[in-house]
Design a protein that fits this description.
This protein has 263 residues and is mostly helical. Helix content is 51%, strand content 6%. The protein has helices at residues 2-30, 35-40, 43-52, 57-74, 86-102, 128-141, 158-165, 171-174, 185-192, 214-232; strands at 111-116, 146-152, 177-180. It has a three-stranded parallel sheet with strand order 1-2-3, covered by helices on one side. Helix 1 packs across helix 3, helix 1 crosses helix 4 and helix 3 (43-52) packs across helix 4 (57-74). This is CRAL-TRIO domain-containing protein. It comes from Rhododendron griersonianum. One of its GO terms (molecular function) is phosphatidylinositol transfer activity. It holds the Pfam family CRAL_TRIO.
């Protein structure tokens, strides 16, 4: 038993050593970084890009450089919450990603999405072009952030939309997408296994009773905006006031059940 443990321990040390070597190789390939690029390119970040490109340093470098260029122009960390129009809906999605990452527990790199399709129709769906752009941003600039995505209660007609959208997903991401039907116990149980049942809302088979309070949600978002500004080292130029319930923000989200990230 001692020999087996020792061999296993050595293998783990070798894996960690190889991983560290790859991270150092990628960092060297990127060259000197400064400011927000340096802060973004943490060891954990480099590992995600390496994993997304099967540990190929050259491909990981190209992917990461494209992300740094995108972040310098799109400025996702400067988005504040209030939006209308399709382009702004994508900015809203980016805002939610940045916000979720900011609030991940220390040491947790991935999150689980729970998307409720109750009431979804083709007339209320986003255009395919917008869906494709959203998927490209998530796959290219937020690699290895998705642990699993549960599509809850999708209507039959969604299948036609999905047949188009799924071709934009890389195979690894596609495997993380799970369909959940309330009347299918197996799919519900798979979903429940990813969440703390006490925090999962009752409408999704959990025990938590949540009531959306837009005023409170606005306050929390304003706090997160300030936390984001502090993290990236700039003063928040946006002044918020929550008296009207909208926080004077740049992204006003639609009421939705709030499900914490899986631990």
């Amino acid at each position: 038993m001692f020999r087996r443990w020792t061999n296993s321990h050595r293998e783990q040390e070798n894996d960690e050593s190889q991983l560290e070597s790859k991270v150092n190789e990628l960092r060297a390939a990127l060259g000197p970084l400064s400011g927000q690029d340096l802060k973004y390119c943490s060891d954990a970040c480099l590992k995600r890009y390496l994993e997304a490109r099967s540990w190929n340093v050259d491909k990981s470098k190209k992917m990461l450089e494209e992300t740094l260029k995108w972040r310098s122009t799109y400025k996702p960390h400067e988005i504040r919450w209030n939006t209308t129009g399709m382009d702004n809906q994508i900015r809203h999605l980016v805002y939610l990603m940045e916000n979720a990452i900011l609030n991940l527990p220390e040491g947790q790199e991935q999150m689980v999405w729970l998307i409720d399709f109750t009431g979804w129709t083709l007339s209320t769906s986003v255009p395919v072009k917008c869906a494709r752009e959203s998927i490209n941003i998530l796959q290219n600039h937020y690699p290895e952030r998705l642990g699993a995505s549960f599509l809850y209660n999708p209507p039959r007609i969604f299948e036609a939309f999905w047949k188009i959208v799924k071709y934009f997903l890389d195979p690894k991401t596609f495997q993380k997408v799970k369909f959940v039907y309330p009347m299918n116990k197996d799919s519900v149980e798979i979903m429940r296994s990813y969440f703390d049942v006490d925090n999962l809302p009752t409408e999704f088979g959990g025990k938590a009773t949540l009531k959306y309070d837009h005023e409170e949600f606005s306050r929390l978002m304003v706090e997160d905006d300030e936390k984001t500004a502090a993290f990236w080292g700039f003063s928040d130029k946006h002044k918020h006031g929550v008296g009207n319930g909208y926080g004077g923000a740049e992204v006003v989200p639609e009421p939705a059940a709030l499900v914490p990230p899986a631990s």
